[in-house]
Every structure is written in C-alpha cells, then in structure tokens.
Amino acid sequence: MDIIRNFPCVSIMLCLFSGILTSGVKEKAAKYINRTLIMTVIVLNALTLYYTLATGSAFVYVMGMFPAPWGNELRAGALEALMATFFGVIMMLSLCGGQKKLFDEVDPAKHNLYYIMTDVMLASLLALVYTNDLFTAYVFVEINTISACGLIMIRQNGRTIEASVRYMIMSLLGSGLLLMGLCILYDLTGHLLMSNIRQSIIEITKHGLYQIPLAIAICIMCVGLAIKSALFPFHAWLPDAYGYSTVSSAAILSSLVSKGYIFLLLKIFYRVIGFNLIRGSHILNMLFIFGLCGMISGSISAIWEKDIRRMIAFSSVAQIGYIYMGFGLGTTEGVVASIFHILAHAATKSLLFISAIGLTDVSGGSRSFFELTGSGYRNKIAGIGFTVGSLSMVGIPVFSGFVSKLLFAEAAVLHPDQKMLPTLIVLAISTILNAIYFMKTVVRIYVPEKASVVRRKGYFSVKPGQQKLYTVTIICFTVLNLFLGMMSEPIIHVIKMGLGNFA
Amino acid sequence: MGPNLYANYVEAIAMILFGIGFFTLLLRNNLIKKIIGLNIMDTAIYLFLASKAYIPGRVAPIIVDGVQDVEKYINPIPSGLVLTGIVVSVSVSALMLSITIRLYKRYHTLNLDEISAKLKKEGL
Amino acid sequence: MSRKISEEQYKKNLSVRFRNWISGETDPYLGNMEILPQRDASPDEKTRKKHMEDQTRVVNRTYDVENNRIYRFFNAFYKKAALLCCLVLIAILLLTVSYLPKTTDPHSPGNNEVAERYITRGMQETGAVNAVTGMILTYRAFDTFGETNVLFVATCCVMILLMLEEGSKKQAEDENDAKYEPKNDAILQTIASVLCPIIFIFGIYVILNGHLSPGGGFSGGAIMGAGMILYVSAFGFKKTQRFFNEEVYKVAKISALCVYGLIGAYYYITGANGIENHIPLGIPGHILSSGIILPINIAVGLEVACTMYAFYALFRKGGL
Amino acid sequence: MQVFQMILLGFLVVCAISVSFSKKLLNSILIFMSYSLVMSIIWILLESPDLAITEAAVGAGVTSILFFITLKKIHALDEEKKEEDRDE
Questions:
Q1: Which helix (H) or strand (E) holds C31?
Q2: Secondary structure of residue C26 in the 3-state scheme
Q3: Class of CATH domain B9-122
Q4: Which letter does DSSP use for residue C2 in this model?
Q5: Cβ–Cβ contact C43 with B under 8 A
Q6: How far apart are the C-alpha atoms of D26 and D72, rounded to whole Å?
Q7: Which residues contact C283 (CB under 8 A, 6 or more apart)?
Q8: Looking at this predicted complex, what is its ipTM?
Q9: pLDDT tens for residues A69-80?
C-alpha cells in the first residue's frame, strides 16, 4: 500500500515526461500519449484519494534525500487528491469534447504543440495542488501561465492574440506580486516550506514582531493571485480569452486554470498563514466585497452580451465572485461551500462551453444570440447539454449548482457577524440575474426557427448517432453534474476531512 | 516609518525600481515598453532577494580551503531562487516579444489602444 | 616567372585556397562568396501608403477626443489614477522595507538552520564546492526541474506563434530575412571566427565547473547560446544548418530534458523511499565529482543553449 | 565600496526612469541593456557571482538581442532612421 505514496510525484513527473516526448512525435501519437497520460493520472490520483481516505490523514512526500526545511516536499491529503482526480477528469472530458473543433480550427502541424501544452498544464496543476513549498508553487504558476497562454493562442486570429497579450500582462503582474509577497515572507521567516513558514509565523505573532510587513505580504500575495484568477476588478482579459480561443482551451481555462490559483490561495490561507490569523485581518473582508461586486457585475455584463461564448465567459466572472465570497465569509462552512463550488463550476462551465459550440456549429458558425433560434432541435444532444448546464448554473435542485448555492446560503446563515444579510441578498439577486440570461438562451434555442429561414441560411441538423465522441462527452458531463448534485454528501465529507487535515 | 529604512537602503531602491517598472507597465501604451517594465519589475524583486543575503565581510558561498564556517559565507538560498527567477523571466519576455511580432504583423502598430480600435472595426 | 602548372590547377592548390579563404574571397565549402547587394528594405509604395492611411484613420478614431467620451475620461482620469496607484504602491513597499529585519544583521531570520546546513554540510552531502549549485540541483532539485520546463514550454509557445510551415510563406520569410540581415559582412565574420571558439570554450568551462566555481548549466548554456547567435548572424543560417538543424535541435532538446528527468525521477523516488543512492559523490573539488550535479548541469546547459538559439532563429525567420 | 554601490544604485533608478520616458524604442532598449549590466555589477558587489554571470549572459546578452530582433521585425529601426533623415 505504501507504494501509493509515490503516486503524486509519479503523476507529475509522467506529465512532464510525456510533454517532453510529445515534442518529438507526430500528431496522432501525440494524441494517444495525451489520452493515455490523462487516464493514468486519473487512476493514480484516484488511488491516492482512496489511500488518504483509508488512512484518514495526509502524508508528506520528500522529493529527494533531504527532509523538511532543506528539500522540496509534496503533501497529499484527501482534498488535494480529490482536486487532482477531478482536474484530470475535467481535462479529459474537455479535450474529448473539443477534439473535432480542434481539427477544424487549428493547423494540423501544431496539434502536437497543443498536446504538449495540455500535458504540461496538467503537470503544473497537479504540482500546484500537491506542493508543500511556496517557491515550487511560484515556478509552476509560471508554467501554468505560459501554457495557458499557449492554449489561448493556438487558434490564431487577431482576437486571441490580443487576448493573450492582455492575459499575459495581467498574469505576469500577478505573478510578480506573488513573488514579491513570497520574498517578504521568506525574509520574515527564513523558510520556503509551507509548514515551516506557518510555525515561524506563529512564533513571530506570539512575540508581536513584524506585524506590518506580514500583513502587507499576505495582502500582496492575495492581490497577485486574485489578478491571476480574474476576480472582479481584474477580469478585463477574461471575456476575450475565453470567448475566442478554441473550445477545449476555453473549457480548460475557465474550469481548471483559475481554479488552480484559487486552490493555491486556499493553501496559502490554511497552510502558510493559518486561518485564524487571516480571519483577524481585513483581507477577507476585501475579498468578500470584491466577490460580491463580481457576482453582480459579471451577471449584468452577461445579460448585455449578444455573443453566446462571451456570455458564458462573463458568467465565469460571476462564479469566481461566488468562490471568493465564500472565502470572504471566513468560516469553515464558507470555505467548504467555495471548494464545492470550484468542483460544481468546473463541471458545469466546461459543459456549457462544449455544448455551446455544438449549438453554434449548427447555426452557420454564428455566435450571435439571435441566430441560435431553434438550434436545440438541430443538434439535440448539445441542446440537452446546454439546458443541463444552465439549470445547474441557475441552481435548480438535482443539479450541482443547487448544492453549492445551498451551502453558501447555509454558511451565510451560520455566520456570526453582519455578513449574513449582504450575502443572502446578493446571492438572491445574482441567482435571478443568472436565471434571466441562461433561461433566455435556453428558451431561444428551443423556439422553432421558420423552415424557410433554415433553408435560406443553409443550417444543417446533426443526427443523434453522428458525433459519437461529442455525444459521449456531453453525457459524461451531464452524469458528472447529476452526481455532484445528488451525491453531494460524501464529497462534502471528503472536503471537510481534507480541510481538517490541512492545518 | 519603521526603524530600518536606512539600513535596508538596497531593498528600498529595489522597491522603488519595482514601482517604476509597475508605472511603465501601467502607463505606457507601447507593448515593448510594457515588456521592459515587466522585466524591470522582475529584476527589482531579484535585487531585493539578493541583497537580503548580503552581510559585509562574508564571501560568496563557494567553499574555499575546506573551511565550512557559517560565519564566513553568505546565505546561498536567495541566490538559488534568483537564478531560477532569471531564467523564468527570460523565457517569459521571449514569449511576450514573439506575441508582439505577431500583433505587429497583423495590425501594424504596437499601441494596445489602436489595436482594440482596429479589432472593433473588424467586428470579429 | 612561369608556373609549372596551369592556371586552373593552381587555383585548386590548397595553399591558394587557404589564402583566398583567409582574405575572404572564397568559401571552402560553397565556392565563391556570394556578395549580394543590399536591397532596399522598404515595402513597395502602394502598400505602404495603404498602411499609412489605415494608420492615420485608426489613430484619428482612437484619439478622437471630441467624440470619444471614454477616451477623454481615460485621458483625464486613468493616467492620474495609475500614477497615484504607483506612488501608493511604492509608499507601501517602502513602509514594508522599513519594518523588515536589518539586512546586514547576521541574526536575521534568513540566516537560520537551513542556510547553515547548506553551508556546513553541503559539501559532504552533495559533493559540490559551490553551495548555490549544490542547493539548487540537489536540495531543491524539483524547483530546478520545473524551471527547465518553463524554458521548454516557452519555446513551444514561441513555436506556436512564429513557426511557419514549409512552403511559400517560409520562403517569403527567408527572403525577408535576407533583406535585413548583413550578408557576409567581412568585419563581423573575422571577429566571429576569433570570438566564437573562445565563447564556446568559456561556455563549456562554465558548465563543467558549475559545481566548483560560479556558474552552472543556466549561465553556461546562455553563454553558448549567445555564441551560436553570434555565429549565425555572422555566417548565415545555411552554414549553421550544416551542423545544427531542426532534427539536431529536437534530438538535443529531448535527450537533454529526458536525461535530466530520469536522473531527477531516480533521485526523488529513491530519496523518498529511503533507498540507497548509488551515484558516487566523488572527491569534492575534482571535475568528476558531486554525484548527480555534473550530468544535470550538462543536460541543463545543452537545453538552455538550444532554447536560446531556437528563440533567435524563430524570431528571425520562423523556423530552425 | 559602499559609495560605489550607492552610485550604481542611483544609476539603476535613473536608467529605469529614462526607459519609461525616452521617446525612441531603440534608446529604451539600450538603456535597459545597460541597466542589466549595472545590475550584474551590483550582484558581484553583493557577493553573488552566480547571479552576476547569469544576468550578464541572459539579461544583458540574450534578452537584449531578442529585443533588437523584435525591433527589426517590426521595422521600428527603419522608421526611426527615416524620421532622423526627415529631421535633418
């Protein structure tokens, strides 16, 4: 059984290796390597999850000969393993769903570069999830940024390149701030490993030393990671990047990349600084306020948007606002709700992106909202997928979005301070706004289009058996959503247990 | 203001440089200047880190004559971190520059405002 | 004085060819030097005019202060806000610095047991005389592997952007490149033929002595990459491709990264499971010492040199 | 030594500001190159020779070369030359 302890390290190294090997092979082989890799990663991390659940505690894996403060370390607990497995599953499904589109939109000579990017991206996500060392986190944050930029740029039109410039500038600013915060923390504590920094911080707080630099360092790191994960005032790069890149990239970016940074922020809160200390500072209040603003402003922008892909992208801004709002509540319930929302949002948003592409394909490739009329009949499976995703985002029971909203409301009610009322009000407003734009779209795709228009514009219909991989992907996503919605208890249990192991 | 501003003058300069880099990044519309601003920000952080290790009278951590005394050498950790950082920043700036070339080939300008205006005109 | 051999035979004579080569008249491999006249680099008048018109129109529209409310607003507000933001940031950071522990204080938190062990026991545990190299390649090996991968990913990204397919586009780019770059510049070539070997030797020296003196894979690789860039800009891509083309690049890159990865994986897994490490550390101070550091340094140096050259080649002509 | 270091630090600040305010791109890049070189000298003064070598090779060498090719590719050098011609 103890061999399972090696699996996190093995899975990261495997990802990097297959990225390296992929650069020397043809497209076909690259695809097979990529698929095999992701399957392997899912299996390895699922086994790790099983192991951590069986032992009931987290374990530390020393990378190399030298233990704690001297060498690098990985740390795997239930929450980390759950996240890693989930990231693998979402990445697999997103790649499968967007495969046809990838062939249409991307030059075949560059497919293996695309697979390199996804392999390395998965490696960096796994490393961000598992690492126990702040500087390793920084290095892999950079890898994540660069490969995300590659994923945006792989479809080359003016929009994506402009979007990737904006993305790069914002996220390099973010990583600069993160590095700055990290350096100040190193200077205050003399350590880079999360657990050791934590101990030193407890020590210096006890003596009341260096309180101002500590607060500023935490603040800078939060701002950096918030910029990178597109929290409300820093979301300018997001709609273009998600709206115009190829669909697998959009799904991966929206559901995984920003979530990786958010998870890192969570680790910094819990494992580096300690949640009690964070709760005493005003940083959580700031995150709370920005989260609330993001929830409202993202939804309003989405209502005004006529382009369906950009609409979904703006909805991401709102959902990231939810997650930060949950952190901002400053209670364990709030954090649990946020983590569950990370999962729910990842499963739903990639489903939405992938089914939206099916709908636009049968509407003459137009992304305009009005052209989508009746597309739900022309591509039935995509229509079903989009409906499921919308219902989940709005928060209809049975689907995953409902559970996370319920958890948010519960956390707000249980909150001791005066944060309860604003949370509940904004949650209600945001749900209504969500319902407006998602239901508007769902109704639009199920309003029958006049036959003459269909003939004139040359719309075609997709028969159920035609796109097998796409159909299977949508079904898998739907099942995943229903699973998260109906079987939420064990997952919440795992999250709670993982958070307990965090400290 | 705290007590150590004068003693930490190298760090103070590094922070000012960070601010100047940030200023260049925010205020200059030209992409190449933005990239230089990013580079200045990065080097400022590295200067900050490297100066943290320095103690007068101690030498670089290369063991001479087998003397392994802590009192004799400076702390090697910041150097290692900065080494990693420099390589990261060169690859990032190469990437940014290649994006610049592509953008210029398409829009014949380096100004981000103008590029946005052209995008609106294209109505993509 | 008449010659015993004919004029043609005389020209094939080794010494004559050598003299011609020295004076820069012939190329020993390709025959006579091609001396292309430098063509005018500017594109033809019509397209340029069109660009200019486009440009002015867009500029006018972007900076149309009268009719563009957003621009006016930004002009008034954004710049001041950004300046204020920067000043506030600087002030906050200076405040932070003023409360940080004193730099020159030997008892500041940075100089704790971690640094102490790297210095006092580093040589015995890693075999490296240079504590910095020892630290980044053994104690914190995972970081450094990640860093090498940053370079790798960045090259792939640049390839996505600038790599051109075989065919007309590539040819156009080649011609474009030929217009801008000096061809067979005598000064550059003479200097490069003296400097390149020295740069290469210095680069190799820095890589191989990474565990003994300042430097290591990254700096040595960058030096070698710079040497290759000098060689290319002096002698052109055709000559460089005789010994360094895309195939060689791929093989070098993949083998270097794989060697590093394999060594790294072996090191992590044996270390974590408490299996004995069989790589001998050697005697500190010798070239062939310090266990995994030397091979990793060589691999990293190769990778960095390849990357730097690849950046240059991709930037200049969209291919290797 | 400390005075020398302070002069260099002042030079860094001047360089950084003038990069931001210089009118021509070529000038900014040259100034940035000298900024990197001064930075590597400061690192020697701070007893970090590893960093100094790497910064001199990477920051002042390769990065500047990449900047120059970019300028060439975007024809900024030609345009600047033309402007100069016109000014004369």
A1: strand C31-32
A2: strand
A3: mainly alpha
A4: -
A5: no
A6: 10
A7: C289
A8: 0.91
A9: 888 888 888 899
